Amino acid sequence: MIKITSKQLEVTPPIRERVESRFDKLARHQIHLINPHVIINQEKSLFKIEASVGVPNGELFAQAKHENLYAAITAVGQKLEKQLNRLIHKPEAQRHISLETEPEILGTDFDEQYEEVYAA
């Protein structure tokens, strides 16, 4: 169950459906979403959407501002999906590959040639 709160405007069924559809896309990743919460604010002519979702490995948070409410909801959903993708595939990423110099590449001939040039 997604908790949707708003102070300035009423959460209508189409707004609720749009938010739930974005969270359904997150559920496709087969990760348990813990306490999803969406806050909708209206600041002058902009809509500000904030969403926080707990996952077993941590917490996801995203916010977006846009003139169109539905575009802001979509932007928040995309940001959450990107964070979730990054969190899921983090163990697969090879970030710290050690660079080992192989003796074949450097070889011992290089050192001997270097000494000969300066020895003369």
From TrEMBL:
<dbReference type="GO" id="GO:0022627">
    <property type="term" value="C:cytosolic small ribosomal subunit"/>
</dbReference>
<protein>
    <submittedName>
        <fullName>Ribosome-associated translation inhibitor RaiA</fullName>
    </submittedName>
</protein>
<keyword id="KW-0346">Stress response</keyword>
<comment type="similarity">
    <text>Belongs to the HPF/YfiA ribosome-associated protein family. YfiA subfamily.</text>
</comment>
<dbReference type="Pfam" id="PF02482">
    <property type="entry name" value="Ribosomal_S30AE"/>
</dbReference>
<dbReference type="InterPro" id="IPR050574">
    <property type="entry name" value="HPF/YfiA_ribosome-assoc"/>
</dbReference>
<keyword id="KW-0810">Translation regulation</keyword>
<dbReference type="InterPro" id="IPR003489">
    <property type="entry name" value="RHF/RaiA"/>
</dbReference>
<dbReference type="InterPro" id="IPR036567">
    <property type="entry name" value="RHF-like"/>
</dbReference>
<dbReference type="GO" id="GO:0045900">
    <property type="term" value="P:negative regulation of translational elongation"/>
</dbReference>
<dbReference type="GO" id="GO:0043024">
    <property type="term" value="F:ribosomal small subunit binding"/>
</dbReference>
